[in-house]
Every structure is written in structure tokens, then in C-alpha cells.
Automatic annotation (TrEMBL):
Domain Peptidase C2 calpain, residue spans: 30-180
SUPFAM superfamilies the UniProt entry points to: Calpain large subunit, middle domain (domain III) (SSF49758)
Protein family membership: Belongs to the peptidase C2 family.
CDD domains membership: Calpain_III
Top-level division of the source organism's lineage: Eukaryota
UniProt keyword Nucleotide-binding present: no
InterPro entries for this protein: C2_III, Calpain_cysteine_protease, Calpain_domain_III, Calpain_III, Calpain_III_sf
Organism: Perca flavescens
Any single biological process term in GO: proteolysis
Protein's name in the database: Peptidase C2 calpain domain-containing protein
Length: 186
């Protein structure tokens, strides 16, 4: 089919990549996979984005420890490649009910000298995130990162505070990593 025929027949193209190694040819890399289910609840864990300094630290937090740098990096830079996907659960159902999807995104912070401590506003608002996404009204926000070995905390959130919702956070790492939910200390 020629390109012009394709354009006449189709107005939209969607590509589904189920895992990071699906599109690789030849050797199939076996990425490590971590999955967490969470919720944003009004009054407790629905803190909104970093713009809302009074509530941002109440969002759920997940710690990822990146241990080994990539083998033969394509860009020539040492680091640990990983992907983070944040998906709103029940998004299709919400759409059918006429409700709009929330604007979602996440920030990633260096997690130094902590031991399973839920980071508070003193840390999250004083330090800049080492990586971030845009907040988009879509079912899933997914982004690939390359960071030095170390521990990082991922803070998924809705753009505005006080928005109820359930989410799925997935982390894929090219090399060995460890990931866990960071328990809120009250």
C-alpha cells in the first residue's frame, strides 16, 4: 500500500508496546518488571502535583534502587535505563460514564540516606526532582529514563489535589533493580 493510500484509508495509528523488549530484534532482552497498585484518596493520599506545597508529600511514594549500569549503552553514556508507566485504573469505565480522565504524572527524586522513610515536604519541596513527566489527561503516562546507580523515589500524582482515583505504577529496568512501596509514617 502506498503512503497516499494509507493516509486516505486511516486517520489514526496506535502502536501498542506491551513490554520494553517487544520491539527489539535479534536478542531479546529480559527486562525486570515491578508493578504496584495504589490509590489517591481525598483527605489522605490525593495531594496533587508539586505546585500544591501543602499537600504534595501526602501522595503515595515508591522507592526504586538501580544497581548496575547498562551493558553497551546506545548513547555512549553510562547509567541505568528504566521505564516508568503510570496508568489510571478504570479509565475506560470512567470515560463510558462521561467522566473525564484526571491529569496525571510523576516526579522522581534522589533518595539519599533514607531507610524506608516517606519523604515529607521538607525534602520534596526543597529539592528539585531529577526527572519528571508532563501532567496529561490520558489513561497512561509512560517515560524512559537513564539515571546513575542509586536509590530514587517516584511520586505519582494527579495534577490537582483532592481527586480520588486508582492507579497502576509499573517500573521496567534493563538491569537488576529493586522496587518497593514506601509506607507513610504518621
Amino acid at each position: 500500500m502506498s503512503y497516499s493510500d494509507f493516509i486516505k484509508q486511516f486517520s489514526r495509528l496506535q502502536i501498542c508496546n506491551l513490554t520494553p523488549d517487544t520491539l527489539m530484534s535479534g536478542d531479546v532482552a529480559h527486562w525486570k518488571y515491578y508493578q504496584f497498585e495504589g490509590t489517591w484518596k481525598v483527605g489522605s493520599t490525593a495531594g496533587g502535583c508539586r505546585n500544591f506545597s501543602a499537600t504534595f508529600s501526602s501522595n503515595p511514594q515508591f522507592v526504586v534502587r538501580l544497581e548496575d549500569v547498562d551493558d553497551d549503552p546506545l548513547d555512549g553514556k553510562d547509567g541505568c535505563t528504566f521505564l516508568v508507566g503510570l496508568m489510571q485504573k478504570d479509565g475506560r469505565q470512567q470515560k463510558r460514564l462521561g467522566r473525564k480522565l484526571e491529569c496525571i504524572g510523576f516526579d522522581i527524586y534522589k533518595y539519599k540516606g533514607q531507610s524506608n522513610v516517606h519523604l515529607g515536604p521538607d525534602v520534596l519541596l526543597r529539592k528539585r526532582p531529577v526527572a519528571t513527566t508532563s501532567f496529561v489527561s490520558t489513561r497512561e503516562v509512560c517515560k524512559r529514563f537513564k539515571l546513575p546507580p542509586g536509590e530514587y523515589v517516584i511520586v505519582p500524582s494527579t495534577f490537582e489535589p483532592d481527586k480520588n482515583g486508582s492507579f497502576l505504577l509499573r517500573v521496567f529496568s534493563e538491569k537488576h533493580a529493586a522496587a518497593r512501596y514506601c509506607v507513610t509514617v504518621t
